[in-house]
Every structure is written in structure tokens, then in C-alpha cells.
Design goal:
Number of helices: 8
Largest sheet: 7 strands, parallel
Shape: globular
Number of strands: 7
Mean pLDDT: 87
Strand content: 5-15%
């Protein structure tokens, strides 16, 4: 007799997540704030469309709606990102792709670059709370602000951090300081929402 094949537990979990994402990919939403009322989220050369989708979901959870992608590896738009966004389609639909970091920052008055590594730059280093408080003050004055996040594999280059006004570093375990891209975004998004 033939034995019935059962998928590996990990494969079953992946299939469930894909089905969930596919069911929700047609959900519509709308930005909760006007243009410039929340910081822009800038992803430097994101490698995986899934990560872009998870970042979009994190942004939607906490009311950030301006997602900017600098030279995404898998091109843009990307249906994998829409599936991973699990219903945050308005963020995906409105996300803009840029060829260079400079283009993505051109209309912003103030930018914080996220990094876990020590840099030889003379820039103030802020916690997420401090950076978001400064952004709130600047946005209230009519300035446009952004938070720059690095590549999944190796973060931001020194010259990219140099384009920002301040450095944003999260207090994490120094023995394991690497955060997933969506995790880093959600910490900042939560801090912004908390002060709303």
C-alpha cells in the first residue's frame, strides 16, 4: 500500500501564511494622516519583497503611510510584497521606488538613520523615543521627516548614514544587536503612534 505523504510542519505553516496573505491581499485601506504628518519610512536597497510587505504591515499598524524604497532588489511593484503585507495594501500601492538614496531624501527636511554599529561620525545619537520626539516637534512646525533603514544583510554604509541629520540606535543586547527590518520599523512606528 502507498503511504500518504504528509507535508513537513514548516511547509504547512508557510502554506497557511500564504493562504492568509492571499485572502487579505484585496483588502483596501486609507492613510490616517495627511501628507507629511507622519515620518517617511525609507528602506535602503531592500532585498526581499516579503520584508517590504512586513514593513508595510508594521507601518499600517501604527499609522505611518509614506513608504519609500531605494533600488529594491526584486523590482517594484512586487506581488510578494502585497501578499506579505496582509491587508496593508494602501501602503504597498502608494510606496514609491527611487533609483538613489539622495532622490528619496530630496523633499525631507530632517532624517534619522538607523544603525546598530558604532560610526566614526560626528552626529548626535538618539534613542527611538528621542528621535520620534524631535520628529513630532519638527512635523508640528511643517517640516517633513524620515527614518532611514539599512539593508537586511549589512545595514547602511557610512556615507549613507552621513546623509542623515542624526543617528537612531535602539538599545538592544550588544551580543546580538541585529534586528529584522520589520522589527526595527515597528519599534519606531510604535514610538510615533504612542505620542499621537
Amino acid at each position: 500500500p502507498l503511504r500518504q505523504m504528509h507535508p513537513h510542519p514548516l511547509a504547512r505553516r508557510v502554506i497557511r501564511k500564504l493562504r492568509h496573505g492571499l485572502r487579505r491581499m484585496h483588502i483596501q485601506g486609507a492613510p490616517v494622516a495627511g501628507e507629511g504628518e507622519t515620518p517617511s519610512v525609507i528602506l535602503m536597497e531592500p532585498q526581499l519583497a516579503d520584508n517590504i510587505g512586513m514593513v508595510a504591515r508594521a507601518c499600517a499598524n501604527f499609522g505611518l503611510d509614506d513608504l519609500r524604497l531605494v533600488n529594491p532588489r526584486d523590482g517594484w511593484p512586487n506581488e510578494k510584497a502585497r501578499i506579505a503585507a496582509s491587508g496593508a495594501n494602501y501602503i504597498i500601492d502608494d510606496a514609491k521606488a527611487y533609483g538613489t538614496l539622495e532622490e528619496s531624501l530630496a523633499d525631507l527636511n530632517w532624517v534619522a538613520a538607523t544603525t546598530a554599529r558604532q560610526r566614526d561620525l560626528r552626529k548626535p545619537v538618539l534613542s527611538p523615543e528621542q528621535a520620534i520626539a524631535e520628529m513630532r516637534t519638527r512635523i508640528a512646525r511643517g517640516e517633513r521627516c524620515g527614518i532611514l533603514f539599512g539593508r537586511e544583510r549589512n545595514g547602511l554604509e557610512v556615507h549613507e548614514v552621513g546623509l542623515a541629520d542624526k543617528i537612531l540606535t535602539m538599545p538592544v543586547n550588544p551580543a546580538f544587536a541585529s534586528l529584522n527590518l520589520a522589527q526595527a520599523v515597528i519599534v519606531c512606528a510604535y514610538e510615533f503612534y504612542k505620542l499621537a
